Backbone:
């Protein structure tokens, strides 16, 4: 009888402990971030102008970095960028390798099954780019053309639905654009802003062809149980938009105020 009572007591303690963890799990990440004094966030570091390496000092800079830094400031902590390959970046978040991903991630149904997203912090579109002397005017014009795309992106998923292109996978748009410039590809698909910025900054003979394949909401993912962190980040983004900080950052990187687009 005594043994049964002990088992019953231990069982009740275990159930209570699980209940406490379940009730407080949404607080844990935000509280841990504030306790350690830093918000770690991942990106590839190879996605200009959103996140890329500054050739002068080797630091990671870009629109994503500025957004993440501002969010961290409003949470009262330091921003800690972490570079990693895009393929598997969601698994890294789920595994606790970093607190969040501020790397221009598009919201998709598949990703929503694994993570929760903040409100969008910008909208973009999947754009086909070709060499300046190409006669290709849209993705439909290809006949088994070689199209470069970064592996694991929504752009790759969209291209996989087409039967008139051969997909060539890359880890970054830096190599992707270099191969298009050198004639190793017939075209590439990447974000509209990324392609136009890179072509301008690097004096590449690369031009957009046709209308964007589709429009995407770009947002910041967090783990499913990090509800408090999600709310805090949404509040920070809303405050940035309200006080004009967001407008300053978008004008800094793109020369336009993108505030109205995300309100």
Residues:
């Amino acid at each position: 009888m005594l043994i049964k009572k002990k088992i019953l007591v231990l069982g009740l303690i275990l159930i209570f402990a699980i209940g406490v963890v379940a009730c407080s799990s949404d607080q844990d990440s935000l509280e841990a971030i504030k306790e350690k004094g830093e918000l770690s966030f991942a990106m590839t570091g190879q996605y200009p102008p959103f996140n890329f390496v500054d050739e002068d000092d080797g630091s990671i800079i870009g629109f994503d970095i500025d957004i993440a830094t501002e969010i961290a400031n409003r949470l009262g902590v330091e921003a800690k960028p972490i570079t990693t390959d895009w393929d598997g970046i969601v698994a890294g978040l789920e595994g606790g390798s970093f607190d969040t991903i501020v790397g221009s991630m598009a919201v998709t149904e598949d990703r929503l099954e694994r993570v929760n997203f903040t409100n969008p912090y910008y909208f973009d579109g999947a754009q086909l780019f070709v060499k300046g002397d190409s006669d290709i005017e849209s993705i439909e014009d290809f006949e088994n053309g070689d199209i470069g795309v970064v592996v694991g992106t929504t752009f790759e998923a969209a291209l996989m639905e087409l039967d008139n292109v051969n997909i060539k996978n890359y880890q970054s748009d830096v190599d992707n654009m270099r191969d298009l410039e050198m004639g190793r590809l017939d075209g590439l698909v990447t974000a509209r802003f990324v392609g136009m910025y890179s072509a301008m900054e690097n004096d590449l003979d690369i031009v957009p062809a046709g209308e964007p394949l589709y429009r995407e909401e770009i947002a910041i993912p967090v783990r499913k149980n990090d509800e408090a962190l999600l709310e805090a980040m949404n509040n920070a983004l809303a405050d940035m938009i309200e006080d004009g900080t967001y407008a300053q950052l978008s004008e800094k990187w793109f020369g336009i105020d993108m505030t109205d687009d995300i309100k």
